[in-house]
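pls read this protein:
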Amino acid sequence: MATVRRHSNSLLSATNENNVALATFNFDFTLLKVEAPTEFSGLASALSSYRRNDAEEGLPHKTARRLGALFQDIIPPTPKLIAAYGTRVSEVVKTPGINPSGSKSHGPFESFVGADGTTLWAAATSGVAAIGVYLLSCLLARAWDAKQSTSLWVELIAARKREVEQAFQDSHLISSSTLFSARQDISRNDLARWDSSARSWLRSADQAKSWEHHQLALILKNINLPFTSGSSTYASVMDVWREAMVGMEALLCGRPLSASTGSLFLAFSAWHLFPNLIVLGNETVEIKFRDKLFPSCAIVTVGKQAVTSDEKGGFQWSLALSHFHYYGGPIVAQSNREYSRVTFPELRLISLGGLLGAWRIGARDQIPVAEWFLHLSKLLQQIRLGPPKTGVRQHFGWLEIFVRAAEDLCVSNGPAKEKNLQLIKYGSRRVRYFLTDDPYKMSPFFGLGSPPVLAGLSQELDMDCGIEFLRAIARDLGFTDRDSIVCYTLDKHIDRRKVENFEYATAIPHTVPCRKRNAEGVFTLRQMHTTWTYKSSNSTMIEKDDTGLMLVQKEGVGRQVSGAVHWDGTWDSFLWREVPRLYRDHTCTCFQKSECISTSGSTDDPPSVCRCFETVSAAEPESRRFAFKLVTGSCRLGLFLLESKWRSVFESSSYCKNASGEELMPVIPSVGLGNFSESQIKPHKLWDYMCLIIRGPQVNDDAASPGALPGITFISDYHKLSMSLLSVSARFGSCFKCLLQPRQRYHISKAHLEASMRITMVTKAPCRHGKTSRHASKH
């Protein structure tokens, strides 16, 4: 016995002496590379040459080797888990759309296009232990944000090194590679890159397994599972890691389990392995994922617990992070079940929800409004600028963001539609200020549900758009044909003092008898507008203007040339001496026998032409001039009311306020959608209107100036937008035009959606044509 004891002591002494010698010998074992398991072969062929070389020979490979060697002694053996995970990885990279190939069109980013499996392949070529560590990185990346996860890695490595040193001091058996790794430094930047690549892979795998991922997320909302709490942060993480690996290995071996902690569910989400579940509650629910990697008998049973309003379902992990701050003591951090990232298509849906929230659109009207966006896009697509390549997307990128979101909502069904509606509702509740500083000043439907706007955009000529817009306002305000008038000018001078030619049009149609009889043999009535023209002594003859004559012929009466009109110094009112009979204090009932209709005395004789539109040479003194005061607009294009109808200063301000209210009046969603569908809106006028409602720097083009488009410009002034999706690129470091690219792999945290984003619209959308006005408006 003494001899055996003596030989044993000699063996331990020799082992310790060898460990001491090895510990003092610095050998860069990270340069070694092993053959990856065959299940990971699909990943190798899918990576770009740059990423594969970086994974096999670059910094990610060194990090994988060091981490694998450092933790290899405490990683449980899980051969079936490693094989199943490799199979799932190869399946993910072969999913269509997940790993697009780079081309020369991507420029310097050609090598970075596609799924980022750099650190995953680095772990696969660094040994089984490195793959186990990579599984840990996926757990941390799923549960924590990037800063917290990197801080956890720093703390775990420091604690593991202390553990190795203590084991060495206590003469415990430790592998040589673990000792080598404990002597080498792993920088925080290396760990941040390791974590970032793992997060990128999670995003790609989430999309490849989107149905399973979202189904599991719905289950986690209704259960509350704690995590194993250890004596320290290091002990807690190691317990969760080992519990997840051992539990998953048991399931892959066909042994059913009962889950009482969140470790397994965190592993399901992070490793994209989905066994069948049985959720116990008031009703037992069986969820079948039908994952072929698991035997049919591998079932996880979990008890459903009520989640109160103060609690959050799913997994919540509280840890003390000692390396989160450079200075100060440890802080207690808690992972958030709701912390996840959204893709840009999902961000589009949230942005659309924020817009609908600003428009006060209820949940039941969200889908009809989404269909309205698609209809609006089809109308705009009827107008093209230049070659066929240009169109709505190039000139209305900001609108295309909402159109794409509306399309995603309308074409989806089942769980995908439910998820899209949740994103819309989230945006409607929480991110109304994402697009504007004051969402309650945004006109619903961009003003396209308002009857005055639709009446204006239904006209062919630009000036007619403004006139019909004001006429619709006059009708809504209850004005009559005898007290209101529309004033406008055809001159393009911005300075109103240089304007020489004015035209005046009736705001409300005048009822006149017609020479046609109805079925009963009675002469019918019709509604008629007319126009009066005022020209200064220095102006050219307006009668030679073909565009002006076109309007007169359209309205069905001859042109009336008026006498002098005098404007006040503020251009908010004018005096008209030779005012037409329509506005004078005489009885005017043209559909009955009156002074303005002469008949032959026989009921069979047709009535004469109405004389209400004729101007009268005023014999009255100067004080008898008829004054008209501005209600809304300006002398260039405005609605005026006869001064005798303004009974008080209060009523004057009330009319102006009510006019603005009619222009900006909120529209009931169903009514607004009905108004839009019933209108005969002109696509080219809709194009100009959508160009001009953008607030901010306008395109340096005369087409966008009030002189070129006075009618559309006037209408759009009441419905300007104060939002910008283009400036979001400065927030997230990439151009927001990526929203329009179908398969980009850019991701953004939901936490950013509630950041203080105050955005001002900046656009480069040109108007559809260069010289559009009433003088030249042929489409």
User: Anything to note?
Assistant: The radius of gyration is 38 Å. The longest strand covers residues 510-517. The longest helix spans residues 146-169.
